[in-house]
Amino acid sequence: MSAEAAAGGGVEAAARRLDEALARLARRLGAVDLQAGARAAGERDRLAAELDGARGRERMLEAMASEASAALGRAADEVRAALQAEAEPAAGEGSDENMDEDELVLVLTDPAPDPKPGGAR
Fold this sequence. Notes:
about 120 residues, mainly alpha
């Protein structure tokens, strides 16, 4: 066998070994890609479930906030009504606005009471 033939056989053998090594590497990379893809899919599923839960909690909190706002509005209306009802009689006390016409005439025509007992002026 000549040196060229031996060198050619050695190159072919090296090329075969290289092809086999590349094939093994490709299989391993494919397996790694599959594992990474499976992990990514699992992570996506977990995140989607967390997002759904957070959205549900958000809707519940929005409903509770709306109910609380409505209750506060009703309470404020009740307080305003109570304060207005309390202020109305106080504004009318001692004024002629609450008297009917006969009472007003009586007050205006009735002489002032005697400041001293016994009628002495």
